[in-house]
UniProtKB/TrEMBL annotation:
<feature type="region of interest" description="Disordered">
    <location>
        <begin position="331"/>
        <end position="354"/>
    </location>
</feature>
<keyword id="KW-1003">Cell membrane</keyword>
<keyword id="KW-0547">Nucleotide-binding</keyword>
<dbReference type="InterPro" id="IPR027417">
    <property type="entry name" value="P-loop_NTPase"/>
</dbReference>
<feature type="compositionally biased region" description="Low complexity">
    <location>
        <begin position="334"/>
        <end position="345"/>
    </location>
</feature>
<dbReference type="InterPro" id="IPR013563">
    <property type="entry name" value="Oligopep_ABC_C"/>
</dbReference>
<dbReference type="GO" id="GO:0005524">
    <property type="term" value="F:ATP binding"/>
</dbReference>
<keyword id="KW-0067">ATP-binding</keyword>
<keyword id="KW-0472">Membrane</keyword>
<dbReference type="InterPro" id="IPR003593">
    <property type="entry name" value="AAA+_ATPase"/>
</dbReference>
<dbReference type="Pfam" id="PF00005">
    <property type="entry name" value="ABC_tran"/>
</dbReference>
<keyword id="KW-0813">Transport</keyword>
<dbReference type="InterPro" id="IPR050388">
    <property type="entry name" value="ABC_Ni/Peptide_Import"/>
</dbReference>
<dbReference type="InterPro" id="IPR017871">
    <property type="entry name" value="ABC_transporter-like_CS"/>
</dbReference>
<feature type="domain" description="ABC transporter">
    <location>
        <begin position="12"/>
        <end position="260"/>
    </location>
</feature>
<dbReference type="Pfam" id="PF08352">
    <property type="entry name" value="oligo_HPY"/>
</dbReference>
<dbReference type="InterPro" id="IPR003439">
    <property type="entry name" value="ABC_transporter-like_ATP-bd"/>
</dbReference>
Amino acid sequence: MKNTSEEYQLQVRGLEVGFNNKKNFTQILNGVSFNVQKGETLCIVGESGCGKSLTSLSIMGLLPESGGIRSGEIRFEGQDLTNQSMKEMSKIRGNEISMIFQEPMTSLNPVHTVGKQIAEAVRIHRNVTKKEAYERVVEMFELVGIPSPRERVHNYPHEMSGGMRQRVMIAMALACNPKLLIADEPTTALDVTIQAQILDLLNELKADLDMSIVMITHDLGVVSEMADQVLVMYAGEVIEYTDSKSLFENPKHPYTQGLIESIPKLQGKTEELPVIKGSVPNPDEMPSGCRFSTRCAFAKQECFVQSPEEVGTEDHPVRCWMYSGEWQQMTPFEGGESNDNSSSEAVDRQPIRG
C-alpha cells in the first residue's frame, strides 16, 4: 500500500512462524506482510487452518512453547515486538494492544466474578486502588451496553448469556484504552441478532476511542460490515490484499472469487451454492508450487511446480500466476493425480480481470 511507514500503527513484514517437533521445524506462516493505519479496521479472512489466528497470536506474543517466529518483523508504533522480552510484552499486552478471543467461556475464569477478573487486569496496568478499578469496570460495562452494570460486576461467567459474556470480553479488552484491538472471530458463537449488535458496538467504540482493529474472521458478511482493508490468507500465505470495496467488486485470486461466490444470494433461485472443493493442505503436505493449485479451476502445469510471486498493483497485490506476464506462455494442465480437484470438481468460474 502507498502510505509511508510513519503513518502505520502496526507493520508486519515477512513474518515466518512455525512449530518445532522432535524431528524438524514445520513452517506455518510464510512471509506474511500487512499494515494497519491508526483508526482503521483490517479484516484477515480465510478458511480454518489458513494461519489467521496464528498471525494474531504472533502479534500478541502468545505463541505456544513449541511455536516460534523464525524471521520477520512486527512493528507497533515503530517498536519491533519480536525483540521484546516476556516482561516487556506483558506491559504492552492488555494495555496498548488487547485481544478478544473467540469463545469467552474459555477465556474467563469460572470461579471468579467477571468484575474481579477485569479489575485485576486494570490494576496490573494502571496505578489505581481496588475501588477505582471496580469503578472502571462499571464504567466499561456501561460503555459496552451491559444493563445494571453495578450488579453485573458480581456475576460469574455462567450466570450470563453468550452475548453478555462477549460484551464482558470487549469490556476487559478495552478497560485500559488500548490503541489496537485484535478480535479473533468475536461473533462466531452468537446468533445473528447478537452478532449484529456486537459488530455495531465495535464500530462505535472504534470511532469513540480512536482505536484500530484487526479482525480475524471467515465470514465475508462481517468483512463487508467492518473492513477498511482486507487481507486474504490461504495455507499460511497472503494471497490478496486490498480495500474492502475493491475486494468485493473485483476479487482477483481464484480462492477469493470462490469465497465470495459461495455467499448465499438474496435474489434469484439457487438450487446449489458454489463451493471450493477440497480443503486447506496440511502444513507437512504443502504442494510444491502454488499452495492453492490442487483446488484451483485455472491451474496450469507450472502452478504445481513453482510458487507465484506477489504481482498486481501496489494497492491490490495478488499472489497468482494469472496476473503475471508468464501466464499466456504457461503449459495448460492436462489432468493427472496432482490436480484431481481442479477440473471437474472445482467451482466453474471465469477469472475476473482488472
